[in-house]
Amino acid sequence: MCYQRKFHFIFVGFIVFATSIVHIKASTLTDREKKAVLFAHTTNTPLSDKQKIALAFLDTVNRTFQSKYWPNIDAHDYYENIEKNIRNPLYIYQGSATNFCGYAALTYTLLTNEPLYYAEIMHALYQQGMYKARKTVLSPSETVRNVAGTIAGNGKLDLHVADQLLFFTLADQFKGYVNLFNWKYRTGAQNSTWAGTNLAKFNRMLRKTLDYNISSAGSDLFRPIIADQFTYLQEKLKEGSVVLYLNSHRLNPSKHFIINLDMPTHFVCLKSITENNGVYIMKFWDYGLQTQLELNQKTFNRLIFGIIAVHPKQAVL
Amino acid sequence: MKSLFLLILFSVIVVACKTPLNKATIYYNKYDDQLLDIIRQYDKLSAHHNFMCGFTDRTFKYFSIEIKTDTVRYVYNSAVRNFQLADSVIQFKIDTAGVRKMAIDMYKIKCLWVGKADFYPQKQKVTIDYLAFGMPIKKNPFNESKYLVVAYPQEKWSDSLKNYLVSRTGIQFLSDKAFFTVSNKFK
Questions:
Q1: What was the pLDDT predicted at B8?
Q2: Closest partner residue to B81 among A34, A96, A294, by Cβ?
Q3: Which one, A178, A192, A254, B2, has the greatest CB density within 10 A?
Q4: Confidence bin at A90 (pLDDT 50/70/90)
Q5: How far is the C-alpha of B92 from the C-alpha of B80, rounded, in Å?
C-alpha cells in the first residue's frame, strides 16, 4: 500500500514536472517561433516538380539580406511568406478590406502555373527594387516601397509581407479607368479605387507580366454572351487556369439593401464546377482558402461578368 | 405653421447628424444584454467548429452558414437549398437547434450576421466575435452599402493594444469589452 502511494506520488510529480516543462516551453517561445505558429497552414498535398524547382531556387538565394528598397519588410518574413505561397498557393490572401483581389488572383494564377518565375520575380523585386518581366519592367515607386509592410487591419495580409510587396507593386504600376480619379497613392489607398482593377486592366497585367495566352469573355458592364456557361467553364478548366470576374454581392450573396448595383467587383480563381439537381457547386480560390459555394440557376446566370481562360505559351517549369 | 416648419427642419437636422457613433451607441445601450447573449451562444456553438452565420436579405427570410476548415470554406444558403440547410451542415456536427435559437434571437434585434475575425496587430493574433447590422441610410446612393459592426474581443486587451488599434484601424470603443466600426463588408 505504502509502495503504491509512493509510486502514485512519483507519478503525479512526474506529470506536474512534465506539464510545467511544456508550459515553460510554450511561454518562452521566441517572437520568431510565435510568428511561425501564426504562419502555420497545414496542407497534405504532395509538392509538384514545379514547386520543388522553385523551392530549390529559393535555397540558393541569400535569404538574410535586408533590402534597402523595402525598409519595412524583414528579409526572413519575406522569404518565409514566399516559401509558404509556393508550397500552398491557396495561402495567398488579399486582405479583408483592400481592393487587391485582382492582383491576388494574378499571383495565384502565376503560382499555380509557374512557381519558379514567381520566385524569381519576388527575389529580384526585393533585392533590386525592380524586375524586368516578360513584357514590362516592374518598377514600384518609392512611396509604395515605403508603405509595403506597414498596413494594418487587413487580417493575415498584415503578416504576408511578400504579398503586400507584389500587390503594391502591381497596383502602382498598372492603371485602368477605375483608377482615373485616384491615381496616386495616399494613406489607406489600398482600400479605395486606387487599388481597383477592371477586366481590361487585369488582362493587360497578365499579358505584360506573364505573357500568357488569354481568352477573355465578358466586360465591366455586360455579362458574357455564352449559351451554356456551365459547359464553357468546364471546358476552359480542362485547358488551363480560369479566373472569374464577378459580382461579389451575388457571390456572398446578400440583399441587405434596396439598391445593389449589378456590376462586377471581385476576381476569383475557379478550381472546379459541378451541377447537382439544379444546384451549381463552385470551388474557387478566394481570401486564402478554397471556397465551396452552392448557387441556384438564377444567381449563377447573374454572377459572372468576365471569364478569363489562361494558359502559358509553352510548357514551363 | 412656422413652428411646425421649424420642428420638421430640426428633425431633419437631427436625423442628418446621426453619426455611426450615435447609431452604435443607441444599438449598444438598447440591446446590450441581447448582444452579449448572442455572443455567448455563438461562442458555445462555434467552440468545436469555426463557423459564421446570418441572414442574407433585408426581410430576414434567408439564412446562410459558412463553415471554415484549415483549407476549405463551405458556404450554404437556405435560398439555394430551401429547408435543407440543416441537412447540408449535419456532416459538420453543428448543433442546428442551437443555431436556430440564436437565429431567432438575432432576428429580434435585426442583427444580420455573427462571426469571428482575426487581427494581427504588432504581429500578435487577436480574435474578436462580431455582430453586423445594416446601415440603410446612405449619403451617396452610388457609394457601397455600409454595415455597422459591434465587436467583442475574446481576451482583454492591453491599453497599448487598444491605442494601436484605434490609431491604425479607426475602431471606436463603446465600453471596456466592446467596440464598433463601420465596414463595407458584413463578413
A1: 66
A2: A294
A3: A254
A4: very high
A5: 19
Q: What does the pLDDT look like over A209-256, one tens digit per residue?
A: 999 999 999 999 999 999 999 999 999 999 999 999 998 877 765 666
**DSSP 8-state assignment for residue A69:** S
* pLDDT, tens digit (0-9, with 9 covering 90-100), for A248-295: 877 765 666 656 678 898 999 999 999 988 899 999 999 999 999 999
**B126 in contact with chain A, both atoms CB, cutoff 8 A:** no
Beta bridge partners of B129: B116, B152
- Which helix (DSSP H) or strand (DSSP E) does residue B55 occupy? strand B51-55
Q: Give the chain B residue nearest A285 (alpha carbons).
A: B72
Q: Are A289 and B73 in contact (CB under 8 A)?
A: yes
Q: What interface predicted TM-score (ipTM) does this complex get?
A: 0.78
Cβ–Cβ contact B87 with A under 8 A: no
**Given CB atoms, is B96 within the 8 Å cutoff of chain A?**
no
With CB atoms and an 8 Å threshold, state whether B70 touches A41. yes
3-state secondary structure of B14: helix
* pLDDT confidence of residue A126: 97
Task: Give me the helices (H) in chain A, please.
Answer: 2-27, 31-39, 49-60, 75-87, 101-113, 115-128, 142-147, 161-173, 199-205, 229-239, 248-251, 297-303
CA distance B11 to chain A (A): 24
H helix runs in A206-303, sequence order: 229-239, 248-251, 297-303
In this prediction the pTM is 0.82
| Average pLDDT of span B151-160 | 85
Dig out the grid coordinates for A187 from the structure. 494613406
- Could you tell me if B141 lies within 8 Å of chain A, comparing CB atoms? yes
Q: Cβ contacts (< 8 Å) between B53 and chain A: which residues?
A: none
Nearest C-alpha neighbor of B130 from the set B143, B105, B107, B147: B147
Q: Which of B58, B136, B168 sits opposite A153 (nearest CB)?
A: B168
Q: Which of A76-90, A183-197, A293-307, B159-173 has the highest mean pLDDT?
A: A76-90
Q: Which three cell numbers, joined as nine digits, stand for A51?
A: 514547386
